[in-house]
Specification:
It is built from four helices and three strands; from the N terminus they run E-H-E-H-E-H-H. Helix 1 packs across helix 2. Helix content is about 40%, strand content about 10%. By secondary structure, it is mainly α. Strand 1, helix 1 and strand 2 form a beta-alpha-beta unit. It has a three-stranded parallel β-sheet with strand order 1-2-3.
Length: about 120
């Protein structure tokens, strides 16, 4: 490759999963873990959790960086960027969107509600 060797001598190891297995994998091997927490409280709990797992692998808190996942929509105008965002959201299958919303609502089963009706 035409890039210089990274300071650690090997490619940076990234982990982009928030499951128990993903957190454990990051604690043991990764230099960076991505997260997409929806609130400050959840983000702080995630941070404490993954950092707390490092000691059992003889790693220090600074050995793992936690980075928030971000979706950026770039266009010539703000309106075009908003349209791209809307298009992407419209491609989400209703069952997938309902699952995501159920998770954000505290793992409440929302499947028995009419998706086209006002929220109860």
């Amino acid at each position: 490759m035409n890039v210089s060797r990274p300071p650690q001598g090997y490619p940076v190891i990234l982990q982009a999963g928030q499951s128990e297995d993903g957190r454990e994998l990051a604690a043991k091997y990764a230099e960076v873990i991505f997260t997409a927490q929806q609130s400050l409280t959840d983000a702080q709990a995630f941070y404490r959790d993954v950092k707390g797992r490092l000691a059992k692998y003889a790693r220090h808190a600074d050995d793992l960086k936690v980075m928030p996942g971000v979706s950026v929509f770039v266009a010539k105008t703000e309106q075009e960027a908003k349209e791209k965002y809307a298009l992407l959201n419209n491609l989400i299958h209703p069952d997938v969107g309902l699952g995501l919303l159920s998770g954000l609502a505290g793992d409440i089963d929302l499947s028995h509600y009419d998706l086209n009706a006002p929220s109860p």
